[in-house]
């Protein structure tokens, strides 16, 4: 009875309507009263953070606003364990070739590969730290389109199953390296279509089918570790796989130009895809495709600050698929 009284008091504090609407919107259900009590506390905490941040946004003190999303009933520690990855910076940077910072073709002032047809629909990695497979797939999807004029949707599950073992040694849902995912595709002679090898969000037996090759690639290369080089690579090579630092601010992002100086000095923990860049009244930004579904951020995308001293290390580990 005491637990029920506490639970009802928490609901009253949060507003029963808000909590009910949140659960309905995101299809939430919980295994027990204890579990729902915990999720409600996390929801309340995140809701307060969002409301305080958005007051600053409305006052012109922030360049982006926050909003409730499917992760708002999780602490950042829980969120990190379920959706983020772990990287070794040295391993992430270990590729053989580097793109020169200066290109013969000048990069335009703004660019969006989505408008050119080089980017597939936003996907959802589920409760699996497989972001590195989505970053790799998006990079190759873009490169394949630029080379052939055909946009194909690549199987992240193929990459997850078949490169989470020696010699690639990715760690499945516990993290991995985009560079090793791309190396697997090179060595394997291709990767399957998603339609023939659908995403399951857990490591399974490798079931690669040589009769269902969606795309191949000849090599991989890294981008020089500056934002100027990342801009030129994005303009001249296509969507670029990158690794970034994700904080609790990123978790709650809704729209605008994301500016987070708290990510300085932290280790990258998430693989994403740069699909363009631009600027508005809030400043220069990168257009970044995420893998948390369309309900997060700007329909699955985030605009991250550009030309702010490589904020969140967005330019530190850029990778190109060469087809």
TrEMBL record:
Keywords recorded for this protein, A-Z: Disulfide bond, Hydrolase, Protease, Signal, Thiol protease, Zymogen
Main EC class the enzyme belongs to: hydrolase
Domain of life: Eukaryota
Catalytic activity, EC: 3.4.22.15
SMART domains for this protein: Inhibitor_I29, Pept_C1
Reaction catalysis annotation: Specificity close to that of papain. As compared to cathepsin B, cathepsin L exhibits higher activity toward protein substrates, but has little activity on Z-Arg-Arg-NHMec, and no peptidyl-dipeptidase activity
GO molecular function terms noted in the UniProt entry: cysteine-type endopeptidase activity
Signal peptide: 1-16
Keyword Signal among UniProt keywords: yes
Chain ranges of the Cathepsin propeptide inhibitor domain: 19-79
Chain ranges of the Peptidase C1A papain C-terminal domain: 107-322
GO biological process: proteolysis
Family: Belongs to the peptidase C1 family.
Subunit annotation: Dimer of a heavy and a light chain linked by disulfide bonds.
Protein name: cathepsin L
Organism: Drosophila busckii
């Amino acid at each position: 009875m005491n637990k029920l009284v506490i639970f009802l008091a928490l609901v009253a504090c949060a507003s029963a309507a808000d909590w009910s609407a949140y659960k309905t919107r995101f299809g939430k259900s919980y295994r027990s009263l204890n579990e729902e009590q915990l999720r409600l506390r996390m929801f309340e905490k995140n809701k307060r953070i969002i409301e305080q941040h958005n007051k600053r946004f409305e006052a012109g003190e922030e360049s982006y606003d926050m909003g409730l999303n499917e992760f708002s009933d999780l602490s950042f520690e829980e969120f990190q364990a379920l959706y983020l990855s772990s990287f070794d910076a040295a391993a992430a940077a270990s590729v053989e070739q580097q793109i020169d910072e200066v290109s013969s073709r000048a990069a335009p002032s703004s660019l969006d590969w989505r408008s050119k047809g080089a980017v597939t629909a936003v996907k959802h990695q589920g409760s699996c730290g497989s972001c590195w497979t989505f970053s790799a797939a998006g990079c190759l999807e873009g490169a394949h389109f630029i080379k052939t004029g055909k946009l194909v949707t690549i199987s992240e599950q193929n990459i997850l199953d078949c490169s989470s073992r020696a010699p690639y040694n990715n760690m499945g849902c516990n993290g991995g390296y985009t560079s090793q995912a791309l190396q697997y595709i090179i060595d394997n002679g291709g990767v399957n279509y998603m339609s023939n090898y659908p995403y399951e969000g857990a490591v399974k037996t490798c079931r690669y089918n040589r009769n269902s090759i969606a795309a191949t690639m000849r090599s991989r290369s890294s981008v020089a570790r500056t934002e100027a080089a990342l801009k030129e690579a994005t303009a001249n090579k296509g969507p670029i796989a990158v690794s970034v630092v994700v904080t609790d601010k990123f978790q709650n992002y809704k729209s605008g130009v994301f500016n987070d100086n708290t990510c300085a000095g932290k280790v990258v923990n998430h693989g994403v895809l740069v699909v363009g860049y631009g600027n508005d009244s809030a400043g220069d930004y990168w257009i970044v495709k995420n893998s948390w579904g369309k309900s997060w951020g700007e329909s699955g995308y985030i605009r991250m600050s550009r030309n702010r001293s490589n904020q969140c290390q967005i330019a530190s580990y850029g990778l190109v698929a060469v087809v």
